[in-house]
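User: Sequence recovery, please. Input:
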C-alpha cells in the first residue's frame, strides 16, 4: 500500500487487481500519476489497476482526461455505489453465520467466492495455495451454512470507524434462503462488538438493491476506469 495526498494505491502482491483511490490531482499531474501507477503494478506483480473516481475526484473532467490518456471504461463494471449501514440489518432465522475458523472452512468459502465471481483474468488457485492464503490473510472471511454446506460468504476489514465489507457471494443453489443476509448481519454484529456500529461497502448494480433493502444507504457514486500493466 502507498498513500499520498494525491491518491492511495493498494494491491495484494501477485494478484490481478490494484486499486487507485482518493484521487486528488492537479491538471498537470495526470501523466505522472499514470506512470506512477504503472510502476506500482510492476512492483506489486499485479496486471490491472482499478481507478475509482467519485464526485470529489480532481481535477474537473478527470474521467475524460484519463480516457484520452489511454485508460478504459467497461460499461458492465463501471458504475458502483458507496453504501453505508448504521442500523441493524434483519437477521434471518435458522441460518448459522460466522467467521470461518479452519483451513478447510476457508478453502470451501473461497471456492464459493471464486465460482460466483468467475473472472477470466484471475487464475483459479489450488487448495494448497488457498491454504497458504489462509495463513497470511489478516482480514476474516465470513460464511453462512445451509444444509451443512457453505451457502454464502463475505470478507470484512475492521477499522476504527467500522467494518468495510467486500466479496459478498451466494452459491446459486442457496439463493433466496437468507444466507447473504446472514453474512451481512454477522459482520454487523462483530462491528458492533468492537464498538464501531457501521458497515460500508462498494456495490455494483446487482447487489445495490439487495443491500438497500437491508438498510444500506448510498453516500457516494463510484465510477471505475482501468489501466493495464505495460508489457515487459
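Assistant: Recovered sequence (232 residues):
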Amino acid at each position: 500500500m502507498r498513500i499520498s495526498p494525491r491518491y492511495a494505491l493498494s494491491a495484494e502482491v501477485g494478484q490481478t487487481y490494484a486499486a487507485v483511490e482518493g484521487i486528488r490531482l492537479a491538471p498537470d499531474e495526470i501523466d505522472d500519476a499514470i506512470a506512477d501507477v504503472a510502476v506500482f503494478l510492476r512492483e506489486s506483480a499485479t496486471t490491472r489497476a482499478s481507478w475509482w473516481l467519485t464526485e470529489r475526484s480532481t481535477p474537473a473532467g478527470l474521467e475524460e482526461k484519463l480516457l484520452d490518456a489511454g485508460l478504459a471504461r467497461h460499461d458492465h463494471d463501471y458504475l458502483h455505489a458507496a453504501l453505508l449501514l448504521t442500523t441493524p440489518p434483519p437477521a434471518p432465522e435458522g441460518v448459522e453465520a460466522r467467521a470461518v475458523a479452519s483451513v478447510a472452512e476457508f478453502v470451501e468459502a473461497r471456492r464459493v467466492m471464486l465460482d460466483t465471481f468467475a473472472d477470466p483474468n484471475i487464475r483459479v488457485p489450488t487448495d494448497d495455495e488457498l491454504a497458504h492464503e489462509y495463513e497470511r490473510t489478516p482480514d476474516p472471511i465470513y460464511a453462512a451454512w445451509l444444509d451443512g454446506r457453505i451457502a454464502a460468504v463475505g470478507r470484512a476489514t475492521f477499522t476504527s470507524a467500522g467494518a468495510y465489507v467486500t466479496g459478498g457471494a451466494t452459491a446459486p443453489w442457496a439463493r433466496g434462503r437468507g444466507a447473504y443476509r446472514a453474512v451481512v448481519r454477522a459482520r454487523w454484529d462483530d462491528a458492533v462488538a468492537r464498538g464501531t456500529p457501521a458497515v460500508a461497502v462498494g456495490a455494483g448494480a446487482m447487489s445495490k438493491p439487495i443491500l438497500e433493502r437491508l438498510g444500506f444507504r448510498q453516500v457516494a457514486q463510484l465510477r471505475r476506469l482501468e489501466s493495464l500493466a505495460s508489457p515487459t
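Residues 30-44 form the longest helix (15 residues).
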